[in-house]
């Protein structure tokens, strides 16, 4: 939902599968607690606070691109329940969410007062306020924005490590995760430009010639999380760094003879082998690794939104932005469609 929906929008504009998936998830909500399942049927797994958050992010992404008010009305009662489910996990003495639904993208850790989970909650609150504003529900909008502002302050108080110049995974470790630090830039959790610059530089310490190794899942390169890192470097104004990561990680996937050279791997190890998550649920069997994975397609939207510089900023593109990141290239051209019509742009140097 965080990567594949923007990919669908800029490439095929086929958002019907997204709507179907979201309606399935919201229909399966726990009516008592407001918890969303981690996945739809037939797997129907439960117990993931972060996947719960990603479904909410996906709902806002879908509405941004489609302006589908009928969809939003259909899910709204369950959407607000689902936001309240996460907010209820905020510890009032700390002001941050206590992550108890531990299933995640395979990272280690993640429970308790954790930076990744709280970064996602911040994104959910800002998105929820945006959706409420688009339908003139001002009371909810204002409440969610107040909570987001408070969470941002506590996030910086608790997780920022000035010595390392990055956010730590939790208050008991010095580990600086790829996911939470990328989210912090991308979702505007940083409270200064200096922090964005410092994080962008710090993330490169995890790189090798094949991509970014995730400290929160050692010996692993996750194109899912690297897709957010890629966008974070653009947001930090480090365009050359973003393109360097793109060429390393996605270049490896598209040229390695270990894969099909036309679709994107779910993940791989630091040395490039396909034994992704071998010690983390995949039983040391490379056959578990997908070779055509939607969550690995971060550059698809990033090339349009950042390099070409074309994006929508309100539903359906009623307002839009053209802000190219020329990124060392001589020209770019592209387009996408919304229900309002076609948006196209090009630039050359």
From TrEMBL:
InterPro entries: 6-hairpin_glycosidase_sf (IPR008928), 6hp_glycosidase-like_sf (IPR012341), Bac_rhamnosid6H (IPR035396). One of its GO terms (molecular function) is hydrolase activity, acting on glycosyl bonds. Transmembrane segments: none annotated. Keywords: Glycosidase, Hydrolase. Pfam families: Bac_rhamnosid6H. Residues 19-211 form the Alpha-L-rhamnosidase six-hairpin glycosidase domain. GO terms for biological process: carbohydrate metabolic process. This is Six-hairpin glycosidase.
């Amino acid at each position: 939902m965080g990567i594949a929906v923007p990919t669908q929008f800029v490439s095929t504009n086929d958002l019907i599968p997204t709507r179907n998936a979201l309606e399935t998830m919201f229909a399966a909500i726990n009516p008592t607690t407001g918890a969303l399942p981690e996945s739809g049927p037939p797997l129907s797994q439960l117990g993931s606070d972060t996947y719960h958050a990603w479904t909410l992010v996906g709902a806002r992404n879908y509405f941004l691109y489609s302006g589908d008010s009928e969809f939003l009305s259909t899910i709204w009662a369950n959407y607000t329940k689902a936001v309240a489910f996460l907010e209820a996990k905020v510890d009032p003495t700390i002001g941050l969410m206590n992550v108890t639904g531990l299933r995640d993208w395979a990272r280690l850790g993640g429970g308790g007062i954790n930076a990744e989970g709280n970064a996602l909650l911040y994104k959910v609150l800002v998105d929820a306020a945006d959706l409420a504003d688009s339908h003139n529900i001002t009371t909810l909008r204002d409440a969610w924005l107040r909570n987001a502002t408070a969470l941002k302050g506590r996030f910086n108080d608790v997780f920022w490590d000035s010595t390392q110049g990055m956010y730590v995974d939790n208050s008991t470790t010095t580990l600086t995760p790829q996911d939470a630090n990328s989210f912090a830039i991308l979702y505007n959790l940083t409270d200064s430009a200096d922090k964005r610059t410092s994080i962008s530089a710090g993330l490169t310490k995890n790189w090798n010639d094949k991509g970014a190794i995730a400290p929160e899942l050692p010996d692993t390169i996750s194109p899912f999380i690297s897709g957010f890192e890629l966008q974070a470097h653009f947001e930090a104004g480090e365009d050359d760094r973003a393109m360097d990561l793109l060429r390393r990680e996605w270049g490896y996937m598209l040229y390695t003879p270990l894969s099909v050279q036309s679709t994107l791997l779910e993940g791989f190890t630091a040395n490039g082998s396909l034994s992704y998550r071998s010690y983390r649920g995949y039983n040391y069997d490379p056959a578990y690794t997908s070779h055509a994975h939607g969550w690995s397609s971060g550059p698809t939207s990033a090339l349009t939104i950042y390099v070409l510089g074309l994006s929508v900023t309100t539903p359906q593109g009623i307002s839009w932005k053209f802000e190219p990141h020329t990124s060392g290239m001589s020209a770019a051209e592209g387009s996408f469609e919304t229900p309002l019509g076609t948006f196209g742009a090009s630039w050359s140097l």
